[in-house]
Design brief:
This protein is of the alpha+beta class and about 280 residues long. The protein has helices at about 15-20, 45-50, 105-115, 135-145, 150-170, 200-210, 230, 245-255, 265-280, and strands spanning about 5-10, 15, 30-35, 55-60, 70, 70-75, 80-85, 95-100, 175, 185, 190-195, 255-260. The strands form 4 sheets. A 4-stranded mixed β-sheet has the order 3-4-7-8. Helix 6 (about 200-210) packs across helix 9.
Length: about 280
């Protein structure tokens, strides 16, 4: 069962103050999500809260391949971490994912769970309720090849993000996300916030219609607590039904993501920036 915690728009991560308010005697742990590849600058405070309350900390690092904080990699910050290799991710294998941990018990149980709950894959003896979460050889080959150039992939994404930072800084109508120097982001997404005078759908449609630029999907346009599945199964959510999440609403309502992938050329980047500024001015 889940208790949703609000986020901070400036880093899209858990609000430590709201986290403190939401902890109960039954709380078991905290899931920290590195949205867009940004590790929370409040990590130390979140770790302290977990330690004070005897809670585990695990990472949803699906967006954060190669991101670091104080030199420590995403996936090494908590009890365990999870990564996605979906086609849009920084590293992709067409499908699948990965668990990282230095906990021997979690490691050994993960091997069992992924193999239909079998402790030894040579025998059809099931000791856990597992499933077929095996990673295929073909997917693994794709991942191994990408690992050979992983540093180049991340550097290219960071270079593109730096270009956007330089070109869009001080641009009227949008707000950039400032990432502290002790955090290195691998930029799964380049996220900016539109001023409230703009309608995101109108903005995106105008950019597509006038300049043939399709923006990638948001992270996330629909906040977790608004998902229909939790209305269907309300017993899974322990928040009060009248609770508000202003930070999450700001993020889900106001964000757009700009094109960002390693093969983008300088000319294409300039075209995106000029087109973005033109639409902002025309919709003023």
């Amino acid at each position: 069962k889940v208790i949703f915690v609000d986020v901070m728009p400036e880093n899209l991560s858990i609000d430590p103050d709201d986290l403190r308010r939401k902890i109960t005697n039954d709380t078991a742990g905290v899931i920290l999500v590195h949205i867009g590849g940004i590790i929370s600058p409040q990590l130390q405070e979140i770790e302290k809260i977990c330690k004070e309350n005897g809670l585990f900390l695990i990472e949803d690092a699906a967006h954060a391949h190669g991101s670091t904080i104080n030199g420590k990699k995403a996936g090494t910050l908590g009890l365990c971490g999870s990564f996605s290799f979906y086609p849009t991710k920084v590293l992709n294998t067409a499908e699948g994912g990965m668990i990282t941990t230095d906990d021997k018990t979690i490691f050994e149980k993960s091997l069992i769970f992924r193999e239909h709950g079998k402790k030894d894959h040579n025998f059809n003896i099931h000791t856990e309720l597992g499933y077929n979460w095996r990673f295929s050889e073909l997917h693994a080959v794709l991942g191994l090849q990408q690992m050979k150039i992983v540093n180049d992939i991340i550097l290219k994404r960071q270079k593109l993000a730096k270009f956007y930072d330089d070109q869009l800084n001080q641009t009227s109508g949008i707000t950039l996300i400032t990432i502290p120097k002790h955090i290195e982001c691998s930029y799964y997404k380049y996220i900016v916030y539109l001023d409230k005078r703009y309608d995101r759908h109108v903005f995106k449609n105008q950019l597509k219609k006038e300049f043939n630029i399709s923006l990638p999907g948001e992270v996330y346009a629909e906040a977790c607590h608004t998902q229909p599945v939790f209305k269907k199964y309300p017993e899974l959510v322990l928040n009060n039904t009248d609770e508000h999440f202003p930070g999450a609403k700001f993020v889900s309502d106001r964000q757009i993501c700009l094109p960002l992938y390693p093969s983008l050329t300088d000319d294409e980047l300039i075209y995106v920036v000029d087109s973005l500024k033109s639409v902002l001015e025309s919709l003023n």
